[in-house]
Each structure stands twice: as structure tokens, then as C-alpha cells.
Design brief:
This protein is of the alpha/beta class and 265 residues long. It has a single domain, classed as 3-Layer(aba) Sandwich (Rossmann fold). Helices cover 44% and strands 14% of the residues. The protein contains nine helices and seven strands. The chain has a seven-stranded parallel sheet with strand order 3-2-1-4-5-6-7, with helices on both faces. Helix 1 packs parallel to helix 2 and helix 1 crosses helix 9. Bound molecules: nicotinamide-adenine-dinucleotide. Nicotinamide-adenine-dinucleotide binds next to helix 1 and helix 7.
């Protein structure tokens, strides 16, 4: 049955990267999984892969920049699976820009997904969870897990707008946790640099703007990790299962660094 048997989990931005890894892992733990993304073909492909392990899954289109799309997504997930136990707000974007080169469009685009998008997706999930019965006796009615970043803890060069959006993710996690307790727990995960398409984009844009060799920005960050290797999407799946499971029912408002110790440095 696994640690998440009988649980319905929705993951946004799950067509690839960290979201896809979390979707696959919670399925292995027995959850029914709603795989949502702007890239609907990618979401459907991940759902197909999950179903091949004999677990229920479906792909859904969503653009989290539109609050009504997040609300409609939650409705579709509930009509497909019956309830929503866990919502993982993972969809995210980045642009690498110096402070001086950041345009209003760069700022708005990043906030529209990572901050505003996450906030209203969280709101849609919370509305559903508050209106449903607890997952089990003495348990919350639902659990929200937000993907923030260690970039939300400390400002980094070339990433001002992204850092601000992730600080917002940490902040709205705390505010929602305080407001929604005891019915809904809300926690965040703060990854370090993870080997995904997002970091390929960071490395490429940073290298172009600073005249550095391709791969060198990534390698410099990886070399600083005390655990002495690059972080993979799968490194984030253990904490996601823990935060989705009954083992974390008394934990709320927290933001967990999963970064091989990088924030210590
Ligand atoms: N990769 C890292 O190093 C890293 C580090 C810290 C935090 N994070 C965060 O983890 C999350 C996942 O990152 P990743 O590295 O897997 O990124 P990724 O770029 O590989 O995947 C992001 C996914 O989000 C989807 N998406 C983008 N905009 C969307 C929208 N408006 N609506 C719905 N879906 C949308 C994309 O289609 C894509 O499938 C993001 O929130 C990111 O900020 C990543």
C-alpha cells in the first residue's frame, strides 16, 4: 500500500524536473496522482508513466498565472479522484538578469508564476481542503507543500526577481500555515541547485551575460555543496513524501532546506 495509500496528491509543474520526480515518487508510495502543467503533453506523458505502475493518475492542463485556472484545476481533480489530500505547488520559472538589466516584464513574469500563481493555487487547494472531511481521525483535512528555494533565504547576484519570488513563497507558506491550522498544514521545501532544465537555463543565461564558459556557473555552485555532488530531482522526493504523510501532521509553517548543506556555507 505504501505510506500514501488512499491519498490524492496534485502536483503542479509536474511535466518534468522536480515536479515529475515528486509525482512519480508519491505514486510509488500508493497515492493517486494528478499531474498538472502548462505543458499538457508532458503532464499526460508523466501520468502515463505513473499508470504503468498500476497506480491511478491523470494529466491536467493549467496555467497557474490565472487564478481561475487553478480553481478549475482543483475542481477537475476532485471530480476525477473524489477529494484533494495533498497539493504540491511546484510550478516555477526563472530569468537570469543583473539588477540593472531586470525589466518590469522580467519581474512581473517571475512573480506571476512563483509568487502570485503559487498564492492563488494554494488558495484554491485550501478552499477545497477546508470543506472536506479529515484524511483520517485526528488528522488534518489536507496538506499543502510549496516549492520555495534557498534563493528565498538570501539574495543572490543575477537572480533578484527570482529570490524575491521565493522569499514570497516562504512568507505565504508561514501566513497560510498560521491561518489554516489545525485543518490544513502548509510547509515549504527549499532546494539548492538541482540538475533540471531550470538550472540548464540559469547556467546558459548567466554564462552568456558574463562571458563565461557554458557549464562553469553550474560547476561552481556544485563545487560549493558540502555533500560533494550535484542535487537531483529525486533528492527532493523523500521530504515530499514525509510532508504528504501522517508522519508530518504536527509540522506546519516550516521551510526545509534540502541542499546538501549549501546554505551553511
Ligand atoms: N532546479 C533548481 O535548482 C531549483 C532550486 C530551487 C527551487 N526550485 C523550484 O522547484 C520548482 C521546480 O523546478 P524545476 O527545476 O523542476 O523546473 P523546470 O523548469 O524543470 O520545471 C518547471 C515546470 O513548471 C512548469 N510551469 C512553468 N510555468 C507554469 C505555469 N504558469 N503553469 C503551470 N506550470 C508551469 C513548466 O512547464 C515545467 O514543467 C520551481 O518552483 C523552482 O523554482 C528549483
Amino acid at each position: 500500500m505504501g505510506r500514501l495509500g488512499g491519498t490524492v496528491v496534485l502536483v503542479t509543474g509536474a511535466a518534468r524536473g522536480i515536479g515529475a520526480a515528486i509525482a512519480m515518487r508519491v505514486a510509488k508510495e500508493g497515492a493517486s496522482v494528478a499531474v498538472a502543467d502548462l505543458d499538457v503533453a508532458g503532464a499526460l506523458a508523466v501520468a502515463d508513466r505513473i499508470r504503468s505502475h498500476a497506480v491511478e493518475a491523470d494529466g491536467f492542463a493549467v496555467d497557474v498565472r490565472e487564478p481561475e485556472q487553478s480553481a478549475a484545476l482543483v475542481e477537475r481533480v476532485v471530480s476525477r479522484f473524489g477529494r484533494l489530500d495533498v497539493m504540491v505547488n511546484n510550478a516555477g520559472v526563472i530569468r537570469v538578469r543583473t539588477v540593472l538589466d531586470t525589466t518590469p516584464d522580467d519581474w512581473d513574469f517571475i512573480q506571476s508564476v512563483n509568487a502570485r500563481g503559487l498564492f492563488f493555487a494554494q488558495q484554491a487547494g485550501a478552499r477545497q481542503m477546508l470543506g472536506q472531511a479529515p484524511t483520517g481521525e485526528g488528522r488534518p483535512c489536507g496538506k499543502i507543500i510549496n516549492l520555495a528555494s534557498i534563493a528565498g533565504r538570501v539574495g543572490r547576484p543575477m537572480l533578484s526577481a527570482y529570490c524575491a519570488s521565493k522569499a514570497t513563497a516562504i512568507s505565504v507558506t508561514q501566513a497560510a500555515a498560521a491561518e489554516l491550522a489545525p485543518k490544513v498544514t502548509v510547509n515549504a521545501i527549499c532546494p539548492g541547485p538541482v540538475d533540471t532544465e531550470m538550472w540548464k537555463q540559469i547556467d546558459r543565461e548567466w554564462a552568456e551575460q558574463k562571458g563565461r564558459p557554458l557549464g562553469s556557473v553550474w560547476q561552481e555552485r556544485v563545487d560549493a555543496i558540502p555533500m560533494k555532488r550535484a542535487e537531483t530531482p529525486e533528492d527532493l522526493t523523500g521530504i515530499a513524501v514525509f510532508l504528504a504523510s501522517a508522519d508530518s501532521d504536527f509540522i506546519t509553517g516550516q521551510s526545509f532546506h534540502v541542499d546538501g548543506g549549501l546554505m551553511m556555507m
